[in-house]
Amino acid sequence: MPSFSRRDIFSLATKGAALGAFMAPVSQSALAASSASQLPYKINQLIHGVAYYPELWPDADVDADIAEMHSLGINLVRMAEFAWSTMETTPGNYDFSLFKNVMDKMHAAGIAVVLCTPTATPPAWLTHNHPERCHKNADGTVMSHGARQHASYEHPAVRKACFSIIRRMSHELGRHPALIGWQLDNEMKAHVAEDFSDAAIANWRKWLKQRFGSIDKLNEAWGTHIWSQHYNNFEQVPAPVTTPFLHNASLITAYKLFCRESVADFMLAQRNVIREFSDLPITHNDNPAFNIHHERSMQALDFASYDAYPTAEQWSTLVFRSDLYRAAIPGRPFWLMETSVAHNGWLGNHQPIHPEGFLAAEASLIYALGGEGFCYWLWRQQRTGAELPHSAVKSAWNAPSIGYNEVKKVSEAKQQLEPTLLNSTLITPEVAVTYSDHARAMLETESLDKRSGFPARYRGIIEMWHKQVLDSGLHREARFEGASLDGLKLLITPAMPYVSEAFLIRAQDFMQRGGIWIAGPVTGTRGKEHTVPVEAGLGLLEKMAGVSTQYVLPLTGTDAKGELLGVESELSGWCAAVKAKAGTNVVGTITKGRAKGLAFATERPIGKGKLVLLGAHPHGDNSVAMLNRLIGHYAQQAGVTMRFDVPEGVVVVPRKNTQGKLLWIVLNMLNETKTVSLPNGATDMLSGKTLAGTTELDPYARLIVNTNQEV
Fold first, then answer.
1. Which of 28, 262, 436, 563 has CA atoms 20 to 30 A from the CA of 94?
2. Burial class of 203 by CB neighbour count within 10 A (0 to 12, 13 to 18, 19+)
3. What does the radius of gyration of the chain's CA atoms come to, in whole angstroms?
4. Which residue ranges of the chain lie beneath pLDDT 70?
5. Would you name the residues annotated as active-site residues?
6. Each residue of 89-100: pLDDT tens digit?
7. 158: closest CA among 210, 206, 196, 121?
8. Mean pLDDT of all residues in the chain?
9. Which residues form the signal peptide (predicted)?
């Protein structure tokens, strides 16, 4: 098997010139535009990878592992994210020989390597007898060595040790011919949230001073005379530790933003250290559940990657995360860096095992949606530690696992899809859902929709809206708040309490050019510092929407109802009941409840497009019908072309080949047969046969279709 060169998978040029783009705090959209222009990326093959831990097993096993990886079609291993104590047994005593030897063997075998910085698991010598270097929760609990993510990244001694191991590691291994990329840390802040250590609180006050400039401006922005919270200097501003009741909403949200931005900046600092010795691409295995500022963290990365451990019933999570991380750094493929071979598991839980065929369907979905890498956690089942029940390719006793043959099926799917995917490009979606890190922090401070069954977390709300768009058959993605709106025709922004002037300017330009913006429930109801707007009920959004907010009120449990575009449904959640001003049309009216007769949905022409305000969320038996009506109506008005009439559980991914023809990758994500309608004259690209108007798609099956239509 031929060896990889550094450029076999990643073709990245003029990296040095691009480093300046990562040094200053810039918006994700500006960064993406800069990095895309200066770091051209060329995909040359698909990655089928696995997490590998040579520090845990005998050296004698490596050659046999490599031979077995070849038989399974695995062409990449990811290593070292938990190996700090192996590489630096005592302070300054470095030894990278184990990993160099393994990388030598991988390179000789043609298996590429991604190395991880090991900062998620600091060794005992760093924190033993140093509780001040450890993460502290809001209740004062200090984390102990023994798991991971226990150290405080805010403490200067911890940072110094982190940067020292990264610098030495990148110096020793950064130019190894097997190495094709880096991963920063591992699942940043997956197990801990805000850090309340003394070091963190000291940095918090520096952050506040930089943010506000003077304490008077902070007091004014937060309204601190309430409950005598007024401060005379920044040293008096507390962190939101445990109190008899609740802190000011402004303080709680600001502390979340500080901590999450600080983690993203720590990632950027790690990147800068690696760049002293290595110019290879850098990523991080992210996840919307982690407590970091996701959009800001993209400043540290050359390509995005994520983790996902769904059960078969949670397959749509894969679509959402692929749509989010594909759009995170435009023009770059993303990776699914970790998923389970058969099931997830740790000491407190294990999930149901995947049905036969699901893993290959999962991989096919990731590759089709623009993913370059599909990787497992892990190669061999852990024999010690906290994740003993987790599935792996091999058992702890080194025999094929229950998922072993499923990995073979993934390799077969990859080989089948690869020629088509490498010679086609994903069609740019015309529909997007907005994801906002600021909104997430606000809704964690103040959850505005408390009804039973409604998602308790921000990401659940966004996934719910994304799933509604997916089930409508629309080709879509999720874009960060600061991202460009280029290429879109329909933008849906649910649950974004604060709408900034910068976002409104981009939205206005988008609508002037013909786009339709649906500003969903809760959007606009809070100010930047998590206060209630005083100039209008919906802040800056209200004037643009051409409405006058009469009330902002909770409808949960009131049996309120409304009618929108001919569909009636119960309404719930936090509602903006409005009156339309001249030039604004009412499209949804509250028909029952305290706000009866007022509008909850309006539309206003702006340039060639329009702004649609949805002030309340439908609820109950008819809620899906109302949302389908809303999305379908405005997708049609916006001229969205990539919409597919497919049954639930079937995903169509539209791509364009080198001849300009429209291809469909059709995927059945359910363990049941589905009937799919196909374009007239379509052909099966594998068999060359002409397809009928409909076809039966077996459970977890895939179909590569040439529609023979021009894009």
1. 262
2. buried
3. 26
4. 1-43
5. 187, 338
6. 999 999 999 999
7. 121
8. 93
9. 1-32
